[in-house]
Amino acid sequence: MSFPVRAITLDLDDTLWPFAPIGARIERVLDDWLREHSPATAAMFPVERMRAVREEVFATHPQHKHDLSTLRRLTLERALRESGADMALLEPAYETFYAARNQVEYYPDSLAALERIAARVPIAAVTNGNADLQRIGLTRYFAHQIHSRDHGAAKPEASIFLAACERLSAAPADVLHVGDHIEMDVLGAARAGLRSCWINRPGDDGRPQAWTHDTLRPDLEFTTLTALADWLDAHPHFATEHAVA
């Protein structure tokens, strides 16, 4: 299949790197920090309990579902307050979380493929998460980064995709959204009028996911980001050359 690709919008978590190891690291690092700086909080909210509190906070504050940073702060605030801790610890605790959150372990193909793609078309990161491209060291590959917390709505809402297209100065039909999530990425982008590419990496069983939607399908489906870079190279007339700064 060939179609114009003037720009790309790209998901981050579970597309460039797996999130599960990040989540496990966050829990471990934050627990260690609390044991040192607020032992009463660590004792009252061990990892399993802190995880449950986070889920409760997320469930009871749906108005912040697009803003994971606020939800994380609310979780930490509740744990510190209920354990009688010094509330001045809130921001240092959040910074401890955020530093761990931005330590990523890329999929083996991600960086080389990202460099190839960024050399061909401008890329905007579009994420519901709170990854920071500057902290991670990836800003040189991206023309823009759009967080749901700043935009005010999260994928799969059409508005966040359309905002990315506007920043890229490209019509939605000329923009390819790339991501791992069927609903948030593929269907959200398609409903907003973008082209879609499903990065369907094999799971723990070594097999990719089965497609679950009856009517809509991704325009492209690959098991690696390298395969997308190969596709762009194979269709040079459908992609705009773009030099990485």
From TrEMBL:
Hydrolase in keyword set: yes
Q: Which residues form a coiled coil?
A: none
The organism sits in which domain of life? Bacteria
Q: Which UniProt keywords apply?
A: Hydrolase
Gene Ontology MF terms: hydrolase activity
- InterPro entries named in the record: HAD-like_sf, HAD-SF_hydro_IA, HAD_sf, S-2-haloacid_dehalogenase
Q: Does the keyword Hydrolase apply?
A: yes
Entry protein name: HAD-IA family hydrolase
Name its species.
Pseudoxanthomonas putridarboris
